[in-house]
Design goal:
Helix content: 40-55%
Shape: globular
CATH superfamily of one domain: Cytochrome P450-Terp, domain 2
Distance between the termini: 70 Å
Number of strands: 3
CATH architecture of one domain: Orthogonal Bundle
CATH topology of one domain: Cytochrome p450-Terp, domain 2
Oligomer: single chain
Structural class: mainly alpha
Radius of gyration: 24 Å
Strand order of the largest sheet: 1-2-3
Low-confidence stretches: none
Number of helices: 13
Strand content: under 5%
Length: 280
Amino acid sequence: MPDPKTRRSIGQYVASGDWSDYWTTRISRAQEGRIHVRGYPVEEILERLSYAESAFLLLKGELPDAREAALFDLVMRSGMDQQFISSAVGAARFTASAFPDSPVPALASGMLASGSVTGSPQEPAEMLIEALGWGLPEPESCARVLEVWTERRGRIPGLGHPMHKEAEPRAVAVRRLAIERDGWREHGRMLDAIEAHLKQTKGRTIPINLAGALGAVLADLRFDPLIIGGLGALSYGMALLAHITEEIREGVPLRIIPDALGAHYAGPEERHIPERKTSP
């Protein structure tokens, strides 16, 4: 991650009048008849790399080795659908029902609803990176995680699910496959320890969820937490596109929430505005 002290500011450009490096990127370069991505000719990327390998190169700047490619592929195909147990799906389908001309606005709506409450892996990754950065013995780190994040967010990121109370099937599979691929390393082990500590503290299982598992794997791959948050949304993007297409082709135009489906009014009963004297 860039050092905040070295970040450029608009003020320095205005003051110096030198805008020569104002628009700078290390990602790609396009010239007449030539495109290079992270230094590699785009033709070679298309000929020789998989989708996961190409995406890894874009985001990290270097080609993945076999282990990294397998783990990244696992992450990107882990966002399998879970019916309507996601605010992102509801947002996407509502938008699709009101705008059936294109899937893009609905896809954007679903992405915008992919936040920390919906299940982004960004916060779990930040929690794990922070916990390891303390350099404390594992029991002390776990206790401090519970204290810090309960005060900060009222919950522990990456743990718990509204439906799966004992084990989240996707998280279990991701963890198992990551272990098989040597991808469940220090951040994954820290997440295991936090889960065990939370169970001991609460007296019940609060299982690792998919966001937690993805956050651990991607943190072990040394991805920036901002990228990790984006990857969480992208990994679920195909499920959103499937829902959007189904909604447009087979759904109900302009979906509503009537009383029969759970709408509930809790305001005052009918009342009236007192008559007022009109000015002469």
